[in-house]
Write a structure and sequence with these properties.
Layout (H helix, E strand, L loop, with lengths): L8 E5 L5 H14 L7 E6 L9 H14 L7 E3 L6 E3 L7 H16 L10 H7 L12 H12 L2 H6 L5 E5 L5 E5 L14 H13 L4 H14 L10 H9 L6 H7 L1 E3 L7 H12 L2 H12 L17 E4 L9 E3 L4 E4 L5 H9 L3
Parallel strand pairs: 1-2, 7-8, 8-10
Antiparallel strand pairs: 3-4, 5-6, 9-10
Helix pairs in contact: 3-8, 4-9
Organism: Volvox carteri f. nagariensis
GO molecular function: ubiquitin protein ligase activity
Catalytic activity: S-ubiquitinyl-[E2 ubiquitin-conjugating enzyme]-L-cysteine + [acceptor protein]-L-lysine = [E2 ubiquitin-conjugating enzyme]-L-cysteine + N(6)-ubiquitinyl-[acceptor protein]-L-lysine
Length: 351
C-alpha cells in the first residue's frame, strides 16, 4: 500500500542502538507525507514475528523513551532531589532528536499511550505558550538557595562575592561561564539588585539556556497538537494526557478485567487475588501495577481504559511458581494456587 493511501502511520524498527535512528528516519518521512496524525501501527520489530494489536506499540514507546531519556544519551538530565527531567544545555547538534521527543508526546496523545518520564509542570505551561518562572518543582535546592538570597541581610549579600554570571555545562563535563547581562562577570550582586539576579538566573535555567533544545521539541509537539483544541486543556490536564495519573482506583481495573485459559471473575484464585490486591498499601499496589503493565501511571480515563485491556490467565495447576506477566499486553499469568495464603506470599515476592 502506498504511504499516502495507508490509513495508518506504519513503523518498522530495529531494537537496540538502531531504534532512535530508525524512528527518526521514518518520522521524517511521515512528516513529508502528512501521515503523523494517522493511527500508529508499529508493524513489528524487524526480525521478529507478530502483529501489532497494541502491545508492540506500547513496547515501542517504552523502549524509545528509555533511550532518549538515558543521561548517557546527552539530551536530558534528572535533578538529584526532585528526579524530574529537564533539557541538558549543550552544543551538540540534536535538533532532530528533540523534535522527535516533541512528536513522540503528540503521538502518545493521539494513540492513547502513557509515556514513562517526568517533566516539571512548567514544561507543559511553556508548551502552551506561557512563560512561567517556577523553579521550585524542578530544582528544589537551587530554588531554596535563591529564596535564601532574597531574605539575607543586606550586608551578608554584599559579602558573598556573587556576580551576574553563572556556570553552564555545554558538554559532558565541559563548563563555561555565561553572563546574565552584558558584562555580567564584572557586575556584583548586591542587596539592591538581587531580585534582578534571581529573576535572570531562573530565566536562564528555564528558558535561555535550553532554547536550542526546547524550540525544536515544541515544534515537534505542535505538529500534532496545535490549534484551538490545545486551549481546551490546562497545563496539568495536558500532563495527565501524556504521563497519566498516580491515583489508583483498583475497583475500575477489577471491573474491566478480562479472563482467559479457564479463569472467570468467580474463580477462587481470582477472588483471592483481588482481595489481596485491595488490601495492599498504595505503594505496593503501584509496584504490582508496574509489574503487570510496565507503568505505575493511570490513563486519563482511568484503569478501565488500559490499552490493551488487563487480562488474567490461568497459568497451570498449583505450583510454587511466581506469577508472571507480559507487560506489553497488560497480561497477568496467575497459577492456580492452592490457598489464598500461598497466593499472598507469592505475590509479595514480586514487589
Amino acid at each position: 500500500v502506498l504511504p499516502d493511501l495507508c490509513p495508518f502511520l506504519v513503523l518498522r524498527v530495529r531494537r537496540g542502538p538502531y531504534l532512535v535512528q530508525d524512528t527518526l528516519i521514518q518520522i521524517h518521512r511521515a512528516k513529508e507525507t502528512d501521515s503523523l496524525k494517522k493511527p500508529l501501527k508499529v508493524v513489528k520489530f524487524i526480525g521478529e514475528e507478530g502483529v501489532d494489536e497494541g502491545g508492540v506499540a506500547k513496547e515501542f514507546f517504552q523502549l524509545l523513551v528509555r533511550q532518549l531519556f538515558n543521561p548517557d544519551y546527552g539530551m536530558f538530565t534528572a535533578d538529584p532531589t526532585s528526579h524530574l527531567h529537564w533539557f541538558r544545555p549543550s552544543r551538540l547538534e540534536m535538533e532532530l532528536e528533540f523534535e522527535l521527543v516533541g512528536i513522540l508526546i503528540g503521538l502518545a496523545i493521539y494513540n492513547s499511550h502513557i509515556l514513562e518520564f517526568q517533566f516539571p509542570s512548567v514544561l507543559y505551561k511553556k508548551l502552551m505558550g506561557a512563560t512561567v518562572a517556577d523553579l521550585r518543582e524542578l530544582a528544589p535546592e537551587v530554588a531554596s538557595s535563591l529564596a535564601k538570597l532574597l531574605q539575607m541581610p543586606p550586608d551578608l549579600v554584599d559579602s558573598l562575592g556573587l556576580v551576574f554570571q553563572v556556570d553552564m555545562e555545554v558538554g559532558f563535563g565541559e563548563v563555561e561561564p555565561v553572563d546574565l547581562v552584558p558584562g555580567g562577570g564584572e557586575m556584583a550582586v548586591s542587596a539592591a539588585n538581587r531580585r534582578l539576579y534571581v529573576d535572570l538566573y531562573v530565566r536562564h535555567l528555564l528558558q535561555d539556556s535550553i532554547a536550542p533544545q526546547f524550540n525544536p521539541f515544541q515544534r515537534g509537539f505542535l505538529r500534532l497538537c496545535s490549534g484551538a483544541a490545545l486551549g481546551w486543556f490546562s497545563p496539568s490536564e495536558l500532563e495527565l494526557l501524556v504521563c497519566g495519573s498516580r491515583q489508583l482506583r483498583l475497583e475500575e481495573l477489577e471491573g474491566a478485567t478480562q479472563y482467559d485459559d479457564g479463569y472467570t471473575k468467580d474463580s477462587e484464585p481470582v477472588r483471592w487475588f483481588w482481595e489481596v490486591v485491595h488490601a495492599l498499601p498504595p505503594a505496593s499496589q503501584k509496584q504490582l501495577l508496574f509489574f503487570v503493565t510496565g507503568s505505575d501511571r493511570v490513563p486519563i480515563k482511568g484503569l478501565a481504559h488500559l490499552n490493551p485491556p488487563f487480562v488474567i490467565s490461568r497459568a497451570g495447576a498449583h505450583s510454587d511458581r511466581l506469577p508472571s506477566a507480559h507487560t506489553c499486553f497488560n497480561h497477568l499469568l496467575l497459577p492456580h494456587y492452592i490457598s489464598k495464603e500461598v497466593l499472598k506470599v507469592r505475590s509479595a515476592e514480586l514487589r
